[in-house]
Amino acid sequence: SIADSTVVNNDNSEYWTSSGKDTTDKIFLLSLSEAGRYFSSDRERIARYDGEAVDWWLRSPGINDDHAAIVYNVGYFNSLGFSVDDRDVAVRPALWVNL
Fold first, then answer.
1. Which of 16, 19, 21, 81 has the maximum number of C-beta atoms within 10 A of its C-beta?
2. Are 17 and 61 in contact (CB under 8 A)?
3. Please, which contacts does 18-24 make with residues 24 or more away whose CB atoms are closer than 8 Å?
4. One digit per residue, pLDDT tens: the chain, 99 residues?
5. Is 92 left (phi over 0), alpha (psi -120 to 50) or beta?
């Protein structure tokens, strides 16, 4: 029931970082624009793990090829991003389901 999704990967317009090609995936990370569209407030964007608010990855590129955008544990965006080898950032997968 998990649908194939065309995942559009937009460049980071603030830092002119390339995002790479669009893909077709079943499970993916949200982009900066999708996280803003599907969560209407900072409070809604807060993700929790073991009851604690955590930072989480977005698929949008950050300031360079080694960084990806995130959502801070308080729900704010960070388009500069964190280094992709940072192990203290959670993964919040997204998917579409055929009902």
1. 81
2. yes
3. 18/61, 18/65, 19/59, 19/60, 19/61
4. 999 999 999 999 889 899 999 999 999 999 999 999 999 999 999 999 999 999 999 999 999 999 999 999 999 999 999 999 999 999 999 999 999
5. beta
26, 4 Cβ separation under 8 angstroms: yes
CB 90 within 8 A of CB 49: yes
Whose structure tokens read 């090609």?
A: 21
DSSP β-ladder status, 47-49 and 67-71: unpaired
